[in-house]
Design goal:
The chain is mainly α. The chain has nine helices and no strands. It is elongated and about 120 Å long.
Length: 375
């Protein structure tokens, strides 16, 4: 009994020491250098999600917290089993074995709780576990560290995308119906011409002209709706890619969307509508560039390019922010001359992304201050 207790105590002390050393080594590096995140290759419920960025410190803390819970449950189960075995067994040997089982389980449970208390006494942040996500909540708006977009915004983008797709599908159906009306009007005109009735021919020609005008308007509307649908869908996908730290994928999505929008615009023959389509494409493209640029700055804070805890990081952040403002201001000035309405839409996008950048920087600094205070 004494030998088993001694071995258990040695293992517990060694495990606690290793966890403490790991956290002491990784935590300052994470705070000061904003260590790069990585993406888990699998999913464990309530721990981490496949391909969702996390960091080693959060991983160790969460695995440690989950391990404590599992070990406590197992210890209680062993105590219950030993109690049942002790009360139902007649043989002295079995009673002795059951007694040893619950004693060992109780000792293990006490050691487990002692390790937790010791670590909490040293620094509460060492055991401050968040089982909902591996990332520390940085902002009051619920944006986790490693993420630049709240779920509410993603949901809004999803709703906009679905609405745009539905509108495009309806516009396509209306265009098809209008084209059928043109075909029917042409058939009526041919029939009237065959009859030689001047009045019927005039009426048929007027009806055909009206049907063609409606079909042209429906074709233009479908083309514009197609551009908007592609823009809304790609904006959602780009935001999701940027949110996951995949800038290359975001750029690829933007390039594919531009091809789709350009193809849709090429089918619009009306000069005024063609000009409007090109203006919409320009606004969509520039707005998506703003989202990608803002995501790159936020990702820079996550990966250590702009560690907000260091003066050098703050300087680099300010340089990146100034470059972002300079580029967007230049584009806005160009759009203001050619498309004032589109320029206003672009300005709204820029302001929203700039707000995310500044809020995220403040949140990162606030998290650093909380950790320092806890230490």
């Amino acid at each position: 009994m004494k030998t088993a207790f001694k071995k258990s105590l040695q293992l517990a002390v060694a495990a606690t020491g290793l966890v403490f050393i790991a956290l002491v080594i990784f935590a300052p590096a994470k705070i000061a250098l904003a260590q790069e995140t990585y993406k888990p290759l699998t999913t464990i419920p309530n721990a981490f999600t496949e391909n969702q960025p996390t960091d080693p410190v959060s991983l160790v803390k969460n695995i440690y917290g989950i391990s404590i819970g599992i070990a406590a449950i197992l210890a209680v189960c062993v105590i219950i089993y030993a109690g049942v075995l002790y009360t139902t067994s007649e043989a002295i040997g079995q009673k002795t074995d059951a007694k040893a089982r619950w004693q060992h389980a109780l000792i293990g449970l006490l050691i487990l709780l002692s390790a937790y208390i010791i670590l909490r006494t040293i620094n509460v942040s060492l055991v401050n576990i968040n089982l909902n996500t591996l990332t520390t909540t940085c902002g009051s708006n619920g944006v986790p560290c490693g993420s630049s977009v709240p779920q509410t915004v993603l949901q809004e983008l999803l709703n906009n995308s679905n609405a745009a797709v539905t509108a495009y599908q309806k516009a396509e159906a209306d265009k098809t119906e209008a084209q059928r009306a043109v075909t029917a009007a042409q058939a009526i005109l041919i029939s009237a011409q065959a009859s030689g009735d001047t009045e019927s021919i005039a009426k048929a020609q007027a009806a055909l002209e009206e049907a063609q005008n409606i079909a042209t308007a429906k074709t233009i509307d479908a083309g514009l709706k197609r551009i908007d649908s592609a823009a809304q869908q790609s904006t959602l996908q780009i935001t999701q890619a940027v949110n996951g730290g995949d800038a290359d994928k975001a750029l690829e999505i933007a390039a594919d969307a531009l091809k789709i929008e350009t193809e849709a615009a090429s089918k619009i023959t009306d000069p005024a509508a063609q000009a409007q389509a090109q203006a919409n494409i320009r606004i969509n493209t520039e707005s998506q560039r703003v989202i990608i640029a803002a995501g790159s700055i936020i990702n820079g804070m996550n990966t250590g390019a702009y560690p907000t805890a260091l003066a050098s990081g703050q300087e680099k952040f300010q340089t990146a922010r100034a470059s972002f403002l300079s580029e967007t201001s230049h584009v806005y000035a160009q759009l203001k001359q050619s498309d004032p309405t589109g320029a206003d839409r672009y300005r709204v996008t820029v302001i929203a992304q700039l707000k995310k950048i500044d809020e995220y920087r403040t949140a990162m600094q606030g998290t650093y201050g909380q950790i320092k205070a806890a230490q």
